[in-house]
Design goal:
Four copies of one chain form a homotetramer. In chain A, a hairpin with a 2-residue loop joins strand 6 and strand 7 (275-278). The longest helix of chain A is centred in the middle third of the chain and has 30 residues, at 129-158. Chain A has a four-stranded mixed beta sheet with strand order 10-9-8-11. The first copy, chain A, is 31% helix and 11% strand. Chain A is of the alpha+beta class. The first copy, chain A, has helices at residues 12-26, 45-64, 75-79, 103-125, 129-158, 224-232, 244-253, 290-299, 307-314, and strands at residues 182-185, 188-192, 208-212, 215-218, 261-264, 267-272, 275-278, 350-356, 382-385, 402-404, 413-414.
């Protein structure tokens, strides 16, 4: 990506805080836990920890720190994710075959790179805005992988028949979300995309005008309770609600509930990072595909918002949500009362929009490897907005564009109705 | 779909002209030719001929013609395409297993339905605008299948090792397309979508405003000669040009040229409806996927137009192209000279746009089975515009939206650059 | 194969009788019926008719009839089955894509080759034992394909939702098979394999000694009535009866009854060449895989016979069974009373044996293309013995070895218990 | 299996020796190494270590040791291999997803079971022949898994791009095997199968007579040098040598050399437990499928021996081969000189025979779960004889029957010619 113009130089403390967060998230996991690739989309925790380190080594240290010695030349093969311009790499679906390098070696790798990054930041970055921008990109990249790490380990642990918990459940109770209200917005020519001098990804710009019709969005997310009504009404068995490709998918995959839900004698249970729990009707429904979100909306006589509608509705919302902390990794919201503005916009669940992921007018990829960051995924993906309970604090904005294929469910995805 | 408001009542001669066109297209094919399903996307000619007839029987005759007797109750099972609301049906990928009903029975079916439709049109439609609209929808539906029939039979014949021709090659020579010029367009708030009282599909509306940046489009299609340069420059072997999913596709499928191209001792040949022919550098390149179109554009330092840009550029273009006739089923253009407006917009090749297929603001599906017509395909498809040499005359408009998945190549698809 | 030593010269009337039989079997089928390949194992009727003709043209006429003109040089590509030494050929799974050559052309091909074969037999074969042997091989090859033609068209018609009949059901009633008796055989050193001067396939020799333990075989086949008991006892749901690979197969394929059985409101129905019929408990059970035969035997406290046991038990049985005729294509037996010898050995159903298909000691393949006839299939196949109701009269012997993979079910396969 | 009649009671020292061997084999591997399932056929080392322990717990301790407390009730789910009668279990292809239980827990499990087994053997087994037999079966079962552990870890490490070694290469040189001599054997009625009072598996009996033709076997294995000649002669590119299914396999899989071979600038290399090594023409060729063994034999004008021929030829051979030790895990033979008897019969490489794996006459499975040991795999497998360099000493006999599907290559398989 184009390292964006950022307000000021990177602080060492920022670097260390983000790096520490990763280690804190990995701490409850053994070396063995950190190795598993439970499906091709999942990467092992160890791989995440090494890959984000390789990013700093490859794009910062090697070109910019005189005398830097690469920790291990083989790591470039193992921990490159998808940068075709940087050379051959471990096949995507064989990341779970890496017992070597060991977890301990990855820890040593992180320390080696951190030591060098401290030197680079201390000495070199102050005068070089391009380097500061690249460090900041590396940190945001690491934060993205922090969320992936949580998504992935949730999937890994769900493949264990006894459903171990990543973390004990915090002692919190949910509250009913209250009635479902619509919030109205005028249409018109509206500016979309990032504006400002702080960090943002290249795909959030250029800022540009979009003409919108008047629209309404729901003031809260769809809950598990709402979803149970959809299911009780035969939602998964009535093709008329579904996109043709969605119907083919649920039929082929035998889906009849969100991912991680499983029936029990006492009702629906759901696999969470706190282990298996009863489905809570107050919670927003999570781990649904685009197909399911779209079908629910159609059943409810509504539709999904476009990403522009969502951004317009969110732009004045305070960035305080249910963001990741070591104790809450679950979209378990104590509801703020309805007050005529949209609630749960930031940090609860990624919200599916009806927008296909595409470049904004005038978007250009950066030259070189970092140019592979975002642009090459702009096909057959749908945009999600708002961050989730696993998103690191400070890593979400109203203009932030996440994206997944329509069949994906292992991210913390939910939905809000529009019309 | 919502049967649109059409200007006047349907004429019997219109009905018969369209029905006759279908038979004329099938005439060069034996009963055996008309049975083959050479891949799941392809339908046999016989199936097309019967399915479009079933449409009239099911939606017009059964509900509206008193005393009408269904030709054969089993045909509803065989020839329903995808209307979930109408009941069970022949599996999509097993349409090639239908030796019974025979081709002769299908011909009799067509005669039976035509005879009844004549009665219906003569007697009942004059007073009923809704019926006239539905007849017209059926005729446009039949025209869509006329083009599918040609796409499909091209694929069928290409699977025969000796590459038989559907039709002899007409005696026409191509001319060089001349230099590649850019045509400029101002941006602004521009109306998009169908306007008027003639027939159009539901997905062409509602008409609405879109805000565009200024843009340029090429005044001609990319030619085979252009494409050979892309190939000579390693276009199919350099990941940097490709969407990630596109690179995975061409690697998995071993694509190194457009569909239907094959190497020979004397250079590239291409399978056409006229049999195997040398690739002509003057012709527009056809049978490319979205991935290939996008990669070419990136290689050329340009991009694909959005469907809105395309429509805005096309709106004043005369609807005279290289449309289907019994003698020309090949995008073989005698070039009009460059005159500062876009050429080859209508009736040469379907042009890939960068727009994902999505509903226009305010789009609503019709109640009942006809509501399944368009809406349920609005995911993971990209819009193509302009019609092609296999599109029936009268069946194309500047606002017409065709759509295919990004990997599809068996339709007559090409590309025009934008920037 | 090694054309075996046959007693006397081939008669023209033999040639014409076999060739006429093929046409008689194809006669109820339209050109469209004759085109379908309903699964990769199936070949279209038209392809069978042409392939067996190509055999005569390629191995008899081209090398031996001076001045013979090949009917069409392309046919060698289309109608070679698997002779690697004869050149490239139509992909096995794309035999259903051949609308051209047409059925009429195949009929003309047969006439062209027949006319030349008559000349060859009239003039050249009398003095040439090697040619007579090869003609006879061609005729037995054609008889094999006559049975395949019936197996295959049964499958083709079963894919049509309305289950058309190949031939009306003859007016015959079944009779109960009577109690299940065991017939004892002494063991010892026993000669196995073909002995004599008539035609036989290379894989039936060399004749050799096999040492056997004493054994017993049932005097009749397992019936549908027996099978219904197995099913009622949970046979398809209890892994302990099944080979590991068999259990995996029935689980993956959702098999819970023999092939062609389907439940109805009035009980189990079965697709036959006479259309859909109620399952008749008196009939031998047909269309079962090796896995199912083995599981049934285990459930019944017995086992399958080896092919040597079967041959030894069959060697004195008269060759009069329920062989193919235009009116009976169904293992519908009027039972001969039990008389202390095995019944239903010849011409009812191919009987699974526990023997893997392997060469007899001293077996050698013939040089050249005909050497590909049998040997190269000797892996992962199991031997079946006895012929079936679709086997041409005169084409079965006690030493005849048929073979199929363990999962195959579309041939007329049944089982007889041993212990 | 039927616990066979064994000569005397089991000794505690035998138990501990086998259990220690497993731990010694696992010792070079980290907890992370021990987790990987690199293909569905492979099991993680940790899983092997636990599964063989579960066998003792389930079949010995639970039913026979009063007061025994199961280590962890969940382990039955995780570490049951395929005993359908013992209940549900971890899916076969998801054994690599088990980070929990940890390697340390598995080590504790082994200690827990060992402690109890010592008590059982000390107190209970002396008087109970059935228990002694079952202990001995458990030990031989463990030895089978020791070899699997080595096969599997070889595959696991081969998936690491830098080809780490399991163990350093011992300092040994190979010697040329000398000319290829044939050893003649008379035919006749020959007894086959285990005879004696020591341990053997159920599938080695009952002992029975087989009538054989006279035959010859080569006095040595086919070497890598021999194989290079086959390759140089186009062996992998000439269909006439291959079984039809073998040709389809090598074409689909792109095989053009034995498994673990890879080309380099200096010639063929081979992945071994000592890392990547140059192919040594003196060594016997290893890691070949049945298809390749059969094709080589056909190319060489010979054939594979039957398992009966092999056993007859091996029965007087001394059981001293290249069996597993911590230092030699490679079929690297210092050749004994040719002396007119077959060499390399025991402990070098498993030798493919042409015999399909089938029960001997009179074979019966034991009642209950141990009856699932061998019988249910008797379909579509071919017998290999003689043990290999990874087989534990004491775990091989002339009558020992190993078996694998024809396409398998990851075991230490080689071939010896016969004719």
């Amino acid at each position: 990506m184009t390292p964006p113009h950022v307000r000021d130089s990177v602080e060492l403390s920022d670097y260390q805080a983000v790096r520490d967060d990763t280690e804190r998230l990995a701490a409850p996991l053994s070396a063995e836990d950190q190795m598993i690739q439970s499906m091709p989309d999942v990467s092992p925790t160890k791989w995440h920890r090494a890959h984000i380190t390789w990013f700093f080594e490859t794009f910062l240290l090697v070109p910019n720190l005189p005398g830097y010695e690469v920790f291990d030349a083989e790591f470039g093969y193992f921990f490159n994710s998808y940068y075709e311009t940087v050379g051959e790499r471990q096949p995507r679906h064989e990341r779970g075959f890496l017992s070597r390098p060991s977890n301990d070696q990855v820890t040593a790798y992180r320390a080696h790179v951190d030591e060098a990054m401290v030197r680079l930041i201390d000495t070199g970055v102050g005068d070089r805005r391009d380097l500061a921008d690249l460090v900041r990109l590396g940190l945001h990249h690491e934060q993205q992988h922090q969320e992936l790490l949580l998504m992935d380990i949730k999937h890994v642990l769900s493949k264990n028949a006894f459903r171990p918990a990543y973390h004990p459940r915090p002692d919190m109770a949910s509250t009913p979300p209250g009635p479902h209200n619509w919030v109205e917005f005028d249409g018109g020519l509206i500016d979309i995309g990032y504006e400002g001098n702080d960090f943002h990804f290249d795909n959030e710009g250029p800022r540009h005008s979009v003409y919108m019709q008047p629209f309404e969005v729901a003031d809260r997310l769809v809950t598990c309770g709402d979803w149970l009504q959809f299911m009780a009404d035969g939602g998964y068995h009535e093709p008329i609600h579904w996109l043709s490709e969605g119907w083919a998918t649920i039929t082929r995959e035998n889906w009849d509930a969100p991912m991680y839900w499983e029936p029990s004698e006492t009702g629906w249970m759901v696999q969470t990072l706190h282990g298996l729990q009863p489905v809570d009707p107050n919670e927003p429904v999570a781990h649904i595909s685009y197909y399911e979100a779209d079908a629910y909306a159609r059943w409810a006589g509504a539709r999904l918002p476009t990403e522009f509608e969502w951004e317009h509705a969110a732009v004045d919302v305070e960035l305080t949500g249910n963001l990741a902390s070591s104790s809450v990794l679950h979209p378990l919201t104590v509801q703020s009362p309805s007050n005529g503005t949209p609630r749960q916009m930031i940090g609860d669940l990624w919200e599916w929009t009806s927008s296909s992921y595409a470049p904004y007018p005038g978007f250009e990829t950066a030259p070189g490897a970092v140019g592979e960051y975002n642009g090459k995924f702009m096909v057959n993906q749908y945009v999600l907005r708002g961050g989730c309970c696993a998103t690191p604090p400070g890593h979400i904005r109203a203009t932030y564009r996440n994206f997944f294929p329509a069949h994906s469910r292992w991210m913390f995805s939910g939905l809000r109705l529009a019309r």
